[in-house]
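Homework help board

Subject: predicted structure for assignment chain

Our instructor gave us this sequence and asked us to write out the predicted structure in token form, then describe one feature. I got the tokens but I'm not sure how to describe them. Can anyone check?
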Amino acid sequence: LKTPRTIKTWIRCCVALAAALILMVTRRSLNNMGQAGFFVAIVACMLPPTLALSLFILAAITLLLGMCVGWAWGAAAMAAGLSVRNQALLAQQQQRVQASIVNNGIPATVQYQIFIFKGYFLDPGVSAVWGAFFFIGTFALGTLRAYVPKLALLSIFGSIVLDV
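My token output:
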């Protein structure tokens, strides 16, 4: 922090990180952005605004492409998982849950969420398909990062989006 240019870059990075953390902490913006609100803070740390504008835009496009690859692979996993889902088992699980919902003042949607989080609707076939897709996608992105280190941002954010 000895030259004015270094101080300017440092202040720019601090402002970007502070804005990201404020967006992550503020309830209204967190409600709008959802769980992805922490991505802004991750991007502010992994891709600080220290590069020239053209290089920064290139890195941001690489990051965005990685997120799109992770999202597309996750969407393909969801489609494949739904295609192997046993509909008779799902109907049986839904009937069992519907019969166990009680009218004790807790809304039915909250009770359904409790059953979902406890794993009442899990299907082993769907879980196996998800696991296979997750393994292949993570392996491919890790291999990409190992053999093409310049695409590290793509593989890191692709893996993060694939996990979420």
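Reply (TA_rk): Your tokens look well-formed. For the description, you could write something like this. The CA atoms of residues 63 and 153 lie 5 Å apart. That's the kind of observation they're looking for.
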